[in-house]
Amino acid sequence: MDFKKLIAYQKSFDLGMAIYTVSKSFPKEEKYSLTDQIRRSSRSVSANIAEAYRKRKYQRHFISKLTDSDGENSETNVWLDYAFACEYLKEEVYNELSKENIEIGKLINYMMNNPSKFGVDVE
Fold first, then answer.
1. How many domains does the chain have?
2. Which residue range is the domain that position 105 belongs to?
3. What is the pLDDT along the chain (123 residues), one digit of tens a residue?
4. E strand or H helix at 43, and its extent?
5. How far, in Å, CA of 78 to CA of 27, rounded?
């Protein structure tokens, strides 16, 4: 299986792209703070899932990279909170992005708790 077929990868990639699109409307003064941060963390989620999948031969490496992905996903959630609090996101957009973010976190945690289902040699 290719990592691009993982639901967690697909959903995190889609969320990263949705955040990229919506963050285009953030104020210019946020370019080097909120905009860059939320784009970086949201994109890092899928990148770390891809790395984890490629390191699945070793359970500890797999879980370590998924832990990184989960951390980036949580960071993205914080930046979404800031964007909403600063009134850069409408409530319905914020709720939808947050819902997706939470679902991705659950998928990542499922992968961490069930590594053998993803081809990991369980130690």
1. 1
2. 12-115
3. 799 999 999 999 999 999 999 999 999 999 989 999 999 999 999 999 999 999 999 999 999 999 999 999 999 999 999 999 999 999 999 999 999 999 999 999 999 999 999 988 876
4. helix 36-54
5. 18
